[in-house]
Please model this.
Amino acid sequence: MSSLASLPTLHTLSQICANPDALMQQLRYRNNGDPVLLLQDAVLMAQQPRFSDSLNQLQLYILNDDLVARGVTIAPNVNATIIDYSQFVQLTLNTQQQVAW
Model:
């Protein structure tokens, strides 16, 4: 079993950022391998091509219920794993902590 210190940190974003630079500034403390989850209004960034390069630098997850609630489909060039609530719970169990932005 891995020690808690070796587990990654889950970063969750619930609001859309003004631009890609603001997104990366917000996540500046993220380590490589830390998963990032878009939920609530933040899922709208996955629809906008201007965010695709920044989002593709991340180990990205997107909450499906929030995509559906907003009628959003992700841009074809965004690499992300779409997850449901049970997978969200599993993701939190596989990380040492969660940081909400």
